[in-house]
């Protein structure tokens, strides 16, 4: 549970550092241009949207975290969002490490 909170806190830090991208159209555009390095997809996102972004992330080899609800992600960044992209490579790498830690528990 501690690692879950670490990830959400880190997501908030990414927001404050202006390293997140939100909004479906903007995210799709940024994914296609290779500027998104990590993706959060809320568990309660619509099926069609989940499929669209999971397919894009698989095609472009973008790691995905789909373990949080819309409420948890929204609280972390202070905006109501279901899909959040991380545009900073270093922050994305740290999020992958934290996500792998949770999977290993």
From TrEMBL:
<dbReference type="InterPro" id="IPR029064">
    <property type="entry name" value="Ribosomal_eL30-like_sf"/>
</dbReference>
<protein>
    <submittedName>
        <fullName>Putative ribosomal protein YlxQ</fullName>
    </submittedName>
</protein>
<dbReference type="InterPro" id="IPR004038">
    <property type="entry name" value="Ribosomal_eL8/eL30/eS12/Gad45"/>
</dbReference>
<dbReference type="GO" id="GO:0005840">
    <property type="term" value="C:ribosome"/>
</dbReference>
<keyword id="KW-0689">Ribosomal protein</keyword>
<dbReference type="Pfam" id="PF01248">
    <property type="entry name" value="Ribosomal_L7Ae"/>
</dbReference>
<keyword id="KW-0687">Ribonucleoprotein</keyword>
<feature type="domain" description="Ribosomal protein eL8/eL30/eS12/Gadd45">
    <location>
        <begin position="7"/>
        <end position="92"/>
    </location>
</feature>
């Amino acid at each position: 549970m501690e690692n879950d909170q670490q990830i959400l806190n880190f997501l908030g830090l990414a927001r404050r550092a202006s390293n997140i991208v939100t909004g479906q159209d903007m995210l799709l555009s940024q994914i296609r241009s290779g500027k998104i390095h990590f993706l959060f997809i809320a568990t309660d996102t619509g099926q069609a949207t989940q499929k669209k972004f999971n397919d894009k992330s698989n095609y472009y080899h973008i790691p995905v975290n789909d373990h949080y609800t819309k409420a948890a992600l929204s609280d972390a960044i202070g905006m109501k969002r279901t899909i959040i992209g991380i545009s900073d490579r270093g922050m994305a790498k740290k999020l992958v490490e934290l996500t792998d830690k949770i999977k290993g528990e």
